[in-house]
Amino acid sequence: MKYKNLDQLFRQTARKLSFSACPFIEARLFIQKAAGWDEIEFFHQLDRPVPPGVLAKLDRLVRMRQAGWPVAYILGKKEFWSLEFRVNRWVLIPRPETELVVEKALGLPLPESPQILDAGTGCGNLAISLAKEIPAARVTASDISRRALQIASWNAKNLGVKNVKFVHTDGLEYFISRKKRFHLIVSNPPYVSENEWHKLDPPVRDFEPRIALVAGPTGVEFIQRLIGEAFECLTPGGFLVFEFGAGQEEKILQHFREGWQETAVHLDYSGRPRVITARKAG
Ligand SMILES: C[S@@+](CC[C@H](N)C(=O)[O-])C[C@H]1O[C@@H](n2cnc3c(N)ncnc32)[C@H](O)[C@@H]1O
User: Mean of the per-residue pLDDT values for the chain?
Assistant: First the structure.
């Protein structure tokens, strides 16, 4: 089909994406990606002819979306804490709710140059956001997925962050064996149960890494382990801050035994319990 101008292509693309909740936004983002434009350039070009090469590239992006791919994987990026992170199918797409982990962490009474660990870093969103906010911090980002660590390390370089290092480990084993201690451990761990995974939205279940989502039969297996391992790796008075799944708080709170204090459950902006903070006794 021949298009009179970009505006006509824009409207036609949005029609093809009418199954999505935001067809016009997606149409614009895909055209921007196909043409290599930012938002300002896009609106500037609306009454001009469609540049050569854009149609074929755009067609591929629209077909991916029609096949169920999440927008962030198609664009190869996702915003978190006002920073742009590269993402692909090896990492979970950062969710806005997870920003509450950063917010809660930044409200804690930490030393001036805290040692911080992000356990299960994925694309590095928590580690890098904290490293930017606390330039004097020494941040470690760990994951069991080497491919995730590659993306996270790319993101750190791309965002000009130098105070993060990356460690491959199962849980916190690497740090326990080396007697490493942190003032703060943050995590957005896998917390979906095997049964829940089958019922997740298809774009999540079919495209995002299972290892990033599923913890085991109950969903709290990783969190239970995290509480135990974090206790070993925190300095006296150190903090643990992590996200958890809907309805898990009671089960999780049982795992905070003697030696923990100031345990608190925090609601997200939709009023749902989302983040737990706790402190190792000093
Ligand atoms: C829910 S994703 C969180 C990613 C990212 N921090 C975020 O907020 O979007 C959980 C991460 O934990 C990692 N993970 C899963 N099992 C692990 C394990 N046993 N040890 C270390 N990391 C693990 C996954 O590879 C994944 O990157």
Answer: 97
Q: How do residues 180-230 score in pLDDT, each as one tens digit?
A: 999 999 999 999 999 999 999 999 999 999 999 999 999 999 999 999 999
pTM of the model: 0.96
180 & 129 share domain? yes
Do 113 and 200 lie in one domain? The reply is yes
Q: How far is the CA of 66 from the centre of ligand 1 (A)?
A: 28
Atom of ligand 1 nearest to the CA of 94: 9
Q: Is 245 in the pocket of ligand 1 (CB under 6 A)?
A: no
The separation between CA 114 and the C-alpha centre of its own chain, rounded to angstroms, equals: 22
13 in the same domain as 152: no
- Rounded Cα distance between 215 and 234, Å, is 23
Check whether residue 170 and residue 57 sit in a common domain.
no
Range of the domain at 160: 81-280
Note whether 28 and 88 are same-domain residues.
no
For ligand 1, whether the C-beta of 17 sits within 6 Å is no
- The 10s digit of each residue's pLDDT in 73-128 is 999 999 999 999 999 999 999 999 999 999 999 999 999 999 999 999 999 999 99
Same domain, 44 and 93: no
Ligand 1 pocket test: pick from 80, 144, 149 the residue with the most ligand atoms within 8 Å of its Cβ: 144
Burial per residue of 158-184, b for 16 or more beta-carbon CB atoms within 10 angstroms, e otherwise: ebebebbebbebebbeebeeeeeebbb
- Do residues 34 and 131 share a domain? no
Tell the residue nearest (CA) to atom 17 of ligand 1: 144
From residue 44, give the alpha-carbon distance in Å to each of 5, 7, 13, 94, 123. 12, 11, 18, 30, 33
Same domain, 134 and 51: no
